[in-house]
Structure formats: structure tokens, C-alpha cells
Amino acid sequence: MDKFQKFIQDLFKDRAGSDELSLFLSVLGLICIVGAGAFSYPYVEVVLTALGIAFLVLSIYRVFSKDKSKRYQENYKFKSLFNSNSQKKSEREAAKAKKKALKEKLKTHEMFYCPKCKASCFVPKGKGKIRITCPKCGEKFIGKT
């Protein structure tokens, strides 16, 4: 067992190893190969099988490649394709949550803008004419709630 472990360690020494792109290519290759059996047309079956094998070979090549920087750049570009979509979605959800929180706060508070720095200041409703101090710049001004 010790010789086998040493063999595996030597095999993967200075190699790029598995990453998200190589995993994606492996799964895509397996899907193509398995999906090829669903078609009764021989040409489609051959093309899908060849495409699946090509994806698997490319995935194995990426795992055993010694050019780590190039594999890292490829994986980074691959991940950025998917992260940009999920990042935009999370930004939209955050904006919705912020808008909802502001709407809830405006039920019990009045919002004023500082005349000096234009920062928003929240004051409880129903207090009448009050002196407001800006939390950002310390400017004092009068407001009616």
C-alpha cells in the first residue's frame, strides 16, 4: 500500500489537479455518452459519443496538466461566467430587501436630509418641531415631524 500511495503522490506532483471546470467537463462528457443511447439515429449517437469522449479527455488533460497558471486562468474565466449571473441576482435581492426595510422604517420615522452634507436623518414621527443633529457631519437644523 505504501508503494501505491507514493506512486499516486508522484503522479500528481506538480499537476494542476481537479477544479470546477474539469468537473463540469467530466459531467458534461458523461451526460453526452449516456444521452447518446437515447437516440435511434446512428449519426447522432456517434457524434454525441465522440463529443462525450472529447469532453472526458479534455477534463483528464486539465487534471494532469503541469501548466497550473493557464489552468487557473481558464477556471477563473469559467467561474466568472456563473458568478456574474448569481451576483446580479443577489444584488437585486439585496436592493429589494433594503427598499423594504426603508419602507418599514418610514412607517414610524420621518426622513430628513442634512442641508450641509445631504445625509439622510431619521427622526421618530409625532414629535412636533425639533432640532435635528446630522449623524454624519454634526450639523444642527430644525425639522417638523
The SSE order reads HHHHEEEE
- Average pLDDT reading: 87
Strand content: 5-15%
Largest sheet: 2 strands, antiparallel
Distance from first to last alpha carbon: 79 Å
Proportion of residues in helical segments: 55-70%
> Can you count the beta strands?
4
Q: Helical segment tally?
A: 4
Strand order of the largest sheet: 1-2
Unreliable parts: none
Judged by helices, strands and strand pairing, the structural class is: alpha+beta
User: Radius of gyration over alpha carbons?
Assistant: 30 Å
Q: Any idea what the shape is?
A: elongated
What attributes does this structure have?
alpha+beta, single chain, 145 residues
What can you tell me about this protein's structure?
The protein contains 4 helices and 4 strands. The chain has helices at 2-12, 20-36, 42-64, 68-108; strands at residues 109-113, 120-124, 129-133, 140-144. Helix 2 packs antiparallel against helix 3. The radius of gyration is 30 Å and the shape is elongated.
Question: Which helices and strands, and how do they pair?
Answer:
Elements: H1 2-12, H2 20-36, H3 42-64, H4 68-108, E1 109-113, E2 120-124, E3 129-133, E4 140-144
Antiparallel strand pairs: 1-2, 3-4
Helix pairs in contact: 2-3
